[in-house]
Design a protein that fits this description.
The chain is of the alpha/beta class and about 260 residues long. Helices cover about 35% and strands about 20% of the residues. It is elongated, with a radius of gyration of 21 Å.
């Protein structure tokens, strides 16, 4: 008996096992971790290529039917099968050692998954995942692309992100409406941003809330010195800025606050 695909859980089951294997081959940095967590195993198409590997494997799925299926399928295999919502778990309470994340993400919550990964970035050295192609491409877009977003700024601050390959619709059951992309994220050496992180988040958020405006307009509320505001960079919009540009603005902001 197969698991019946449920739309509200973003279930699109991958049928092509050679693609499943290729996705799992995306994990490379084994020297950095001994544990791997798979998000949304469904019927275990990726899981099949993750068992019997030199790491301890856990899988988490929110769907009861999948969990029943997986418990039967892997009853003699030493993996941890968790029934639960990846987003609701405080992973720092459950994990003390670094672990990698892999999964064909439920596309409707992929951004939330990344924000959660960022919460635990120092525990998660590597992520390999499939998501909507357009979103995957946007996350890999370099900093000067006009295709940025608030998540990009945060994610690219702490991870090097690389596009691995594209997956067509017809290899899924049911086929999604869009193409998919597989990406790899590797934690970079940035321990902390070169500025006050709370102010950084605040400024990036404000700038992206008013993404159509120039920074001169959107950042009026943070009251930077007027001569600074005359600089050409403030003619740009949020998505035209790099992480380093935002770090620079943040430092001006905090210095200015200190001088008031
Ligand atoms: N890996 C499988 C299934 C991918 S579909 C395959 O490639 O065929 C996405 C999976 O994520 C589904 O099994 C769905 O039940 C699960 N899922 C959806 N929301 C989740 C959440 N919040 N936490 C954990 N798993 C979730």
């Amino acid at each position: 008996m197969k698991v019946k695909p449920k739309k509200h859980l973003g279930q699109h089951f991958l049928k092509d096992i050679s693609i499943a294997e290729d996705i799992t081959l995306g994990l490379k940095d084994f020297h950095l971790y001994q544990e791997v967590l798979e998000i949304g195993p469904g019927m275990g198409v990726l899981t099949d290529f993750l068992i019997n590997k030199p790491f301890q494997l856990s899988v988490i799925d929110i769907d009861k039917e999948s969990i029943v299926y997986l418990n039967k399928k892997y009853k003699d295999i030493p993996i941890e099968i968790i029934e639960g919502d990846f987003l609701q778990i405080d992973w720092s309470l459950r994990r003390t050692k670094p672990f990698a994340i892999i999964g064909n993400f439920p596309y409707n919550i992929s951004s939330q998954i990344f924000f959660k990964i960022l919460d635990h970035k120092d525990l998660i050295p590597e992520v390999v995942c499939m998501l909507q192609k357009e979103v995957a491409e946007r996350l890999c877009a370099n900093e000067h692309s006009s295709d940025g977003g608030i998540l990009n700024i945060f994610l690219q601050s702490f991870y090097d992100i690389e596009y691995l390959f594209t997956v067509q619709e017809h290899v899924f059951d049911p086929p999604p409406k869009v193409k998919s992309g597989v990406i790899r994220l590797r934690r970079n050496s940035t321990k902390q941003l070169d500025c006050d992180e709370v102010s950084f988040r605040k400024i990036v958020k404000i700038a992206f809330l008013m993404r159509r405006k120039t920074l001169r307009n959107s950042l009026k509320v943070i009251q930077l010195p007027s001569d600074v505001m005359e600089l050409p960079i403030f003619n740009k919009r949020a998505e035209q800025l790099s992480v380093n540009d935002f770090v620079w603005i943040t430092n001006i902001y905090t210095q200015n606050l200190a001088n008031i």
